[in-house]
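Below is how a single chain appears once it has passed through the pipeline. First comes the sequence as given, then the structure the pipeline wrote out for it. We keep one example in the README because the format questions we get most often are answered faster by looking than by reading.
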Amino acid sequence: MTTPSFLRDHASLYARDPRGAALAWFGQARFGLFLHYGLYSLLGGRWPTMKVTNKGSEWIQWTAPIPRREYAQLQQRFTAEHFDADTICRLALAAGMRYINLTTRHHDGFCLWDTDTTDFSSMHAPARRDLVRELAEACRRHGLGCFLYISHGREWWHPDGPDTGLDQYGFNASKPDCPEDADWFHRGDAVQLDRYLDLIETQILELCRYPDIAGIWLDGIGGFKSLPDGVRRSRCQALYDRIHAASPHILVSYKQGLTMSEDFFAPERNVTEPIAGKPYEICTTLQPHSWGCKQADDGQHHDADWVMQQLSLAAAIPANLLLNSGPEGDGRIPDEDVRTLEEVGRRLRCDD
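Resulting structure:
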């Protein structure tokens, strides 16, 4: 059994216990790069009918809201011209990071890999590229762990995603509130949730086949926490078992924990209380709030001083820090984030 490159320092343990080796590595990893990249990146947080909300630009299909067919037209503009996996890996290494996490499919349903489940993907866009494979293979070459984010509990493409009903502001946060899509999205008792979960589970198992994947990182926990009997209806424990059977070293996370059997917990932003007995990861973003590219925030991204502070806060928990950058529509990481990450790496090397 060949040891994944990111686990080479744990090769002897991997031979006996692949998952134990992955957990030991994760507990020492400390620092990772999060990338929110997809169709929403092309818009940079701008749409004529945008509502004023506190959601990031990656939520623009829901926030604006944008009719499903109109949003789908963005696929014809998706070239990923400057998405370069080796450049991304070199930047992560320069920053002192040990792993990278890519949004393979956000709530909008657009897939960044060669999936058999839909044509709504980067393979059927002008890019004609499997960005997940490119990143997975680059991470293997560079000895980095590759985590793959996928939306599980929020769904704006498939008609049968979880329906959590209206929130306190009168919006259904699980589905865009578009009159044009009223007959597309199923609601209430009409939702065939298992039909949706069959699709997502197939997609996740496709992702598990990529080389040396370190973990599957699920998002959208509110979609199931808001449903009656949501943990059971999510089918997550059976999904976790299938992931571990497909590749025993792959770690699984679902934000702050849905079943509480996840391999590690990954809450957002300023969390200071760890959950006992589990590895911990805090995710936050270099932009003031948004995870996806937001042009209105240009020049206002956090600097190296702020990142060093976040690393110290995470280490005190103790937890890893998963630090996000929102690539621009063409796939390049913003220059100000590149400068910040390079400076963070310089400081970390000096500290060592």
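The chain is about 30% helix and 10% strand.

See the next section for the split statistics.
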